[in-house]
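Listing S7. Sequence submitted for prediction.
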Amino acid sequence: MNRPYLDRPIGSAMGVSRSGVLAATVAAAILANSGTAEAAALRRLADAEKPLYQSLDEAQKRRFGLAFRFAAHRHRAEAHG
């Protein structure tokens, strides 16, 4: 089966074709790096929010939890929809 789209470069800067193991490892590295960057950003966000959350009273913490769940649901819906 001829698949000419497999020979297109993954990215113009990389110049690596999709055929072969090297391309798969490059793609895996790109995904891992983007995941690592996202994880680091989430860690910084959590570290910044921790003192704020600890300063809230119980009613404020409950509202914060509701707002967080709403925002997370909306983010997932936008990302997948």
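Caption to Listing S7: primary sequence and predicted structure tokens for the chain studied. The chain has a mean pLDDT of 75. The chain has one domain: 4-80.
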